[in-house]
């Protein structure tokens, strides 16, 4: 402790036990470095967002392809995608068409994504969540 006072540093116990190991260091500077490192780690981490794609059961082929390009782009950036199938009027009587479309989406993205939430009906819409495998 006398040596630490002479040099003007702090005596920090590194590992307690029968023979404790201590280190001479500037404790305030060490805490500052740890804070800086933690804030840099927080800055660099990616937050996963859920992007939503809305479709209808009688979607045209070209419209479907445009939506699938958007789905692939979202999955490539690491986001999750919520595919929503909206039913109106008499479409409610043919929910199997919407289910087939969601299965088609699942099959087309199967190499780059996995199904996180299987298709399920919620009121007048059917939803499915897929996430990137990366």
Describe the fold and architecture.
- With 134 residues, the chain is α+β, with helices and mostly antiparallel strands.
- The protein is built from 4 helices and 6 strands, in the order H-E-E-H-E-H-E-H-E-E.
- It has helices at residues 2-7, 27-44, 61-76, 95-108, and strands at residues 10-15, 21-25, 50-55, 80-86, 113-122, 125-132.
- A hairpin with a 5-residue loop joins strand 1 (10-15) and strand 2 (21-25).
- The longest helix has 18 residues, at 27-44.
- It is rod-shaped, with a radius of gyration of 28 Å.
Measured on Cα atoms, how large is the radius of gyration?
28 Å
Helix content: 40-55%
Q: What structural class do the secondary elements suggest?
A: alpha+beta
Largest sheet: 4 strands, mixed
Strand order of the largest sheet: 3-4-6-5
Strand content: 25-35%
Oligomer: single chain
From N to C, what is the helix and strand string?
A: HEEHEHEHEE
Large-scale geometry: rod-shaped
Number of DSSP-assigned strands: 6
Mean pLDDT: 91
Distance between the termini: 52 Å
Q: What are the segments in which pLDDT stays under 50 over at least 5 consecutive residues?
A: none
**Total number of helices:** 4
């Amino acid at each position: 402790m006398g040596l630490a006072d002479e040099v003007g540093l702090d005596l920090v116990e590194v590992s307690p036990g029968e023979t404790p190991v201590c280190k001479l260091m500037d404790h305030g500077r060490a805490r500052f470095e740890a804070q800086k490192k933690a804030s840099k780690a927080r800055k660099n981490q990616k937050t996963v967002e859920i992007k939503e794609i809305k479709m209808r059961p009688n979607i045209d082929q070209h419209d479907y392809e445009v939506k699938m390009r958007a789905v692939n782009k979202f999955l490539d950036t690491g986001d999750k995608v919520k595919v929503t199938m909206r039913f109106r009027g008499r479409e409610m009587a043919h929910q199997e068409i919407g289910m087939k479309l969601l299965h088609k989406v699942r099959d087309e993205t199967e190499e780059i994504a996995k199904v996180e939430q299987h298709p399920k009906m919620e009121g007048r819409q059917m939803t499915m969540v897929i996430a990137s495998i990366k």
